[in-house]
Amino acid sequence: MSEMSEAGRGTEPPVSPRAADVQAPGRRRRWPKILAAVIGVAAILAVIAGTLYVQPQPLLPEARAALASTATVTFADEPGWLAFTPTAGSHGTGLVIYPGAKVEPAAYAPAAQAIAAAGYPTFIVRMPLNLAILGVDGANGVLAAHPEIAHWAIAGHSLGGAMATSYIASHPAAMRGLALWASYPNADLSAFPIVATSIWGSLDAGAAKMGGPQARADLPPDATFIEIPGGNHEQSGWYTGQPNDPPATISREAQQAAIVAATVAMLAKVDAAP
Q1: Of 110, 189, 210, 271, whose CB has the highest number of CB atoms within 10 Å?
Q2: Domain map of the chain by residue range?
Q3: Which of 249, 252, 196 is nearest to 226 (CA)?
């Protein structure tokens, strides 16, 4: 009896095949749920990261203040763009502006208002997710909506400038002028019959490329290149928080005045051309 008792205590009861069959499917059924939960969490994190990435840079008060009509300029908030129209007659040339990456159109409202006050209708295009690379053909709507404007030019800041050159390359008859604001060409426009101006701040991290040999080779031989001493990248608009941007040593007002003057000079050349 004692030997049998000892043997009984030292031996585990066998697991029946039926019990094993019940446990294994249960474990298998849990794995899809765990995998789905992991994928769901990853998707949520991806959405959060994407949302943070496309969050636009904060606007300065001057930007929103310029979203208004004045004695010389009529402002209109259109579905696809911000419109600034001279009240006392316009030149025959209009300007389309492409914003920089993650910068709202309103950041360029003070410049647009000043350019319109000089007699040139100006339109700042809204870009999907504030990324001009997602709206390269954004100028098409503006041109179609304003057949009364005889000639057009396009300006762009940073990524907006690069996409403006892409627009010209794919629509060679649409634009007669180009103004790059702290940007450089994304296409070879050296043989295009356009009036081109490139303007940037000397402290911009990309200054060497903006005025470098490749940028000059990709624009027409008579293109104008202007470096603003003491200017930086974000002072091409009225926003703040530009990553890795050295502080400017001139005022935003001074840098903006130089950008507006260079752009108006380009528009005047386009307007005077036959």
Answers
A1: 210
A2: 11-53, 61-272
A3: 196
Least confident segment among 23-27, 148-152, 212-216, 251-255: 23-27
Instruction: Tell whether pTM > 0.70.
Output: yes
Q: What is the mean pLDDT of the chain?
A: 88
Q: What is the CATH number of domain 61-272?
A: 3.40.50.1820
